[in-house]
Write a structure and sequence with these properties.
heterodimer; A: 247 residues; alpha+beta; Ubiquitin-like (UB roll); Fumarate Reductase Iron-sulfur Protein, Chain B, domain 2; 2 domains; B: 677 residues; Flavocytochrome C3, Chain A, domain 1; 18 helices; 24 strands; 39% helix; globular
Amino acid sequence: MNLKLKIWRQKSQNAKGAFETYQVNANEHMSFLEMLDVLNEQLIEEKKEPVAFDHDCREGICGACSMVINGRPHGPNKATTTCQLHMRFFKEGDEIVIEPFRARAFPVIKDLVVDRSAFDRIIQAGGYISVNTGQAQDGNAIPVNRDCASKSFDAAACIGCGACVAACPNGSAMLFTAAKVSHLGLLPQGKLEHTSRVRNMVKQMDEEGFGFCSNVGACEAECPKEISLENIARMNRAMIGAVLTSE
Amino acid sequence: MSILSKDESGMNKINSKVPAGKLEEKWSTYKSKVPLVSPANKRKLDVIVVGTGLAGAAAAASLGELGYQVHCFTFHDSPRRAHSIAAQGGINAAKNYMNDGDSVFRLFYDTIKGGDYRAREANVYRLAEVSAAIIDQAVAQGVPFAREYGGLLENRSFGGVQVSRTFYARGQTGQQLLIGAYQSLSRQISLGTVKMYNRHEMLELVVVDGKARGIIARNLLTGKLERFGAHCVVLGTGGYGNVFYLSTNAMGCNATAIWKAVRKGAYMGNPCFTQIHPTCIPVSGDYQSKLTLMSESLRNDGRVWVPLKKEDAEKIRKGQMKATQIAEADRDYFLERRYPAFGNLVPRDVASRAAKVECDKGLGVSPTGLAVYLDFNAAIQRYGKSKANVLNLHNPDDATIIKLGQEVISEKYGNLFEMYEKITGENPYETPMKIYPAVHYTMGGLWVDYNLETNIPGLFAIGEANFSDHGANRLGASALMQGLADGYFVLPYTIGNFLSEEIRTPKIDTNRQEFTQAESEVSERLNRLIQIKGKNSVESYHRRLGKVMWDYCGMARSEGGLKQARAIIRELRKEFWSDVFVPGTTDEFNPELEKAGRVADFLELGELMIVDALNRNESCGGHFREEYQTPEGETLRDDEHFAYVSAWLWKDLAQEPELIKENLEFENIKIASRSYK
């Protein structure tokens, strides 16, 4: 199939970016990123600079791939990362617009590559259980209710890709932060630090320049791992608790 | 003391520093006698950890907790992206929670046997010994393992063993364990004991007075080369499966860090031992960039088959016939036929070879002829009937049985089925999956002694980057175990053995001549790559190398083929260095330049793999030399001549690498032929 691609090209963080148009010939068996590989091979052949984009595992789990495809983070398919999107969902003659994730806290590095290190700093602010290697008791000494474990897992499935931020009109990182708060807070091991964790992670989130949550729900709709808005409600409850109780 | 000594025949013998004493007492004795470093001194000692997968992140976090000054590097934008994240099935541990007779000895035994008797006993025993603590640690960190209704940990079974010792977190065990390690690492970063360098790629190892003292890394965002000094260097940089171009590895997985170490004199252990995983989604075209694994757990319920008749296979390949139209009597369930005792759950190397044999006979089922079926129909029927029974439906019709059966299968493997459908567009509930073997893991790696230290003092290798525990074939769910064992529970002790001697060594000065020289060599090489300005893309060379490796050094190898492949690779390397085109400059974010450096290293490592495969005149585990097989087509080991680890000393491209042998002695296990029939 012949496709017309409109891709955001930007040399560096402070350079001015613009859309450029390319023609590429793909086939329906390719993944979206393989289609971009073909474009890049073409550009290299013409001695031009290939399009830079983040990607790694190409099986939907590492969270490296990003990009906004026709206005939607990770493209048109539900619960699908860009690397798992296949060309059979497009047709001959389609025009596809490809942009980087856009948010104040995710500056563009080059073309479609953005800096998501703010997420790391949110985790560093408290997204962990304070246990040193060797301190653990027997795994079965802490029984975990099966439903709690399952809900905790649903939140822990977050791949840290940042689609939630890119989808949000406010550029908020509430879903990402709340997923971590839920993952750990729902488990008995993580309860002890729950309040301080919420407080510290939310503080860091604000410092990084992420926006506030206004319950739009775009984050949940675009999340490739279908992380639920429930997590945000859970975090808000914990935050209220943290604010109302003295230390 | 030198690591080498001469044996009676004048051959170099290598000292693996395995402590004396009974197998089951070695590690505890070692731990109580290993020299310690006081907390005050730890604060003055710098450790570089390269890689943030299970091994690297676990090591960096644990060493930070101990109080060392850790400097941790990843080429990714975040430590959480390391490819350990993609492991699906589970992690083994000798907990015996199932009361099914598991023990440390049994895990040790299964691993040695699974590895076809080509691993070092003492290391494997230690691995089995610390396995239980890994689960405890992960639970304490908040890893949401699967639970029984009573809230206790659940286990399942994996290939090649007879107990259930695999802990899992749905089909995302690697992700959850890595997130656990990443969170521990993040905590140390916030405490200041670990300094994290994202988007930094190690491009050279710096050796000062014979000891590993630092690295040269390229800041991938700016292209700037940076020097980092430390009292020792730890490589947890993963395997080299991407030498084959197509593999289940991530696109960025590379051998550059370990290859730089080899070029500095570190021995490469068993480079030809690679694991080909039997159940991957087959290649569908030339543009394909990577292969996707379908978890080994599927072989619990899936039956592997090809058509019995060549005509049928041909029709299927042409799209004139469907799998479901082939009668039961016209199907060959070849694993069940050849290995009745283990059936579809034979180890990976055995299953992969068997699939290749059928496809070579012209019985493959995809347009390329390189695929076999993995069929869940029997399981759907079985589960459907059982579920109907539970629901008190005593005369269910076929449609009901199928519907109920599909629900059970979906509960067990739903995410894998979805992934399969996303990639292929076919619904595996209705038509059998098509699968074919693909490169998945490398058992070979940097040679290390009992301390996980290479022959370069102060250079350690952990996880898939070392050769240590899996012999010639790794069992399922053992990679996660080994990575975390090395990082959490082995290295933090053994590194003290080296560092206790370094407490008088001041901070390493990166203005030393060794650093200056290393940096200028790296810079020169990068400039050379840019300046070639040839015709062909980096990708095109990688693809060609991969094809040669797969055709001649893949599932079946022969002397003639390997020799031919060696010549082709040498030519290819020459062509690469005169005709590759790398766009852009060295002093900017330039992913093509990164790739070029990695492919250049693969072009050298690939040749060493072939040299090793040529030397090993036997078949064992994943290494199948066509000349050495039983009349039934099984591997034929030669314990008399090849019960050793090949440790290769690489010199330069003009000289033959030198083989140093570490003889394997089996004192606790009787070495026997490995049968799954």
